[in-house]
Amino acid sequence: MKQQIVFPEVSREPGGRPPSCPHCGAAVLRRHQSRPRRLVDLKVKQVNTVQYRCAGCGGFVTVRPAGAPPRCRHSARTKALSVVLWGLGLSLRDVSRVMTGLGVPISDVGVLKNVRALGELAVRRQQQVAGTVPVIGADETEVKLQGKGVTVGFLTDAANGQIVGIELLSSRGGEQLGRWLAEAAQAFGAQVVVTDDLDSYKVATEAAGLDHQLCLAHVRKAVALRLKKLAGFAEEKRIIRRALGQLTPAAQQELADLHHRFRRARPPGKGQHQSPAYALRLLTLDLLENWGRLTLYQQTTAPFLDNLGRPVARHYSVPATNNGTENAIGRGGKLRAKRMRGFKRPDTIIPLLMLVASLSGVLAGVPFHCLLN
């Protein structure tokens, strides 16, 4: 069932009397006074706060209605609405103008504070609900920080596309990616990683001791581009495309036979371009070396045996593509960041991206822990 955005409810009166005094624990609290308070909200313009006095210690306890934050004239519903408008693509100033037109005025600085606060809440709730994720999808993108590009890594639950982690990366090198994936595997109990065909991921997954599934969509697209640049060899190209489409043992043998035919193709000399035959030799070698990464999704057993030497069945499925992570990056980074001039502070990148991903997940039907109710 597709989820919906649920805004906080705002009440005019407090829900009830406190069960005990928060200062001394006494159960006897006497009603002291009730005060009206103006509120900036679409529906409720005034609420009442009730103050109780403890019969034991004499301390005061103030009870506020639901949706009326302390020391703030904006209701929780107003704050949530400003964040949703910003998450849908409006600038801070445009959100302020729209909210003023709706009769709930708020400054652009107020919108920014609400966005940052709810972004930090999104990160905390994501950390609380993240459990065991046997198959994670990993990918990275670049955002602007003070005019310079920084790399942001995304981790998703490959089964449903839900974002389980976002981290700033110092580089896209194998060592940095290996540390990132190893820590993620330990945190989520992951056994398989699904990525694109970046060579750094191959080094990283080997260093982390993880099974690796290459995204077939990326590989097939890359192979198609390589074949398009080669002249001739129509039959050989057809064999390669068919092998990538079938991914069967017979197709692997066809690739091996094809590679054997081009084994004598010579590499280019200094200042020369490689011949089409040598390019096909490298291409078939690349596909054969990564055949296990291309067909991991077909395996039904884990790569280890139980105490009796029997194969252990996988209790999870491995997707053949990394489309879930690609979509998550679109929801959490690319689409919203393109409408921004960039981030000004590094500590706001992850909270804001997590917030946007959570809000955009509603439109995409991706599960997430609701931030607004």
* Main sheet overview: 5 strands, mixed
- Beta-strand percentage range: 15-25%
Mean pLDDT: 85
Shape: elongated
Radius of gyration: 28 Å
Structural class: alpha+beta
Proportion of helical residues: 40-55%
- Tally of DSSP helical segments: 12
H/E element sequence:
EEEHHHEEEHEHEHHHHHEEHH
Q: What's the N-to-C terminus distance?
A: 18 Å
Poorly predicted regions: 368-373
Total number of beta strands: 10
Strand order of the largest sheet: 6-5-4-7-8
Describe, in plain words, how this protein is organized in 3D.
This protein has 373 residues and is an alpha+beta fold. The protein contains twelve helices and ten strands. The strands form three sheets. A five-stranded mixed sheet has the order 6-5-4-7-8, with helices on both faces. A three-stranded antiparallel sheet has the order 1-2-3, with no helix packed on it. It has a two-stranded antiparallel ribbon with strand order 9-10. A hairpin with a 7-residue loop joins β1 (29-38) and β2. It starts with 28 loop residues before the first strand and ends in a 9-residue tail after the last helix. The model is unreliable at 368-373 (pLDDT under 50).
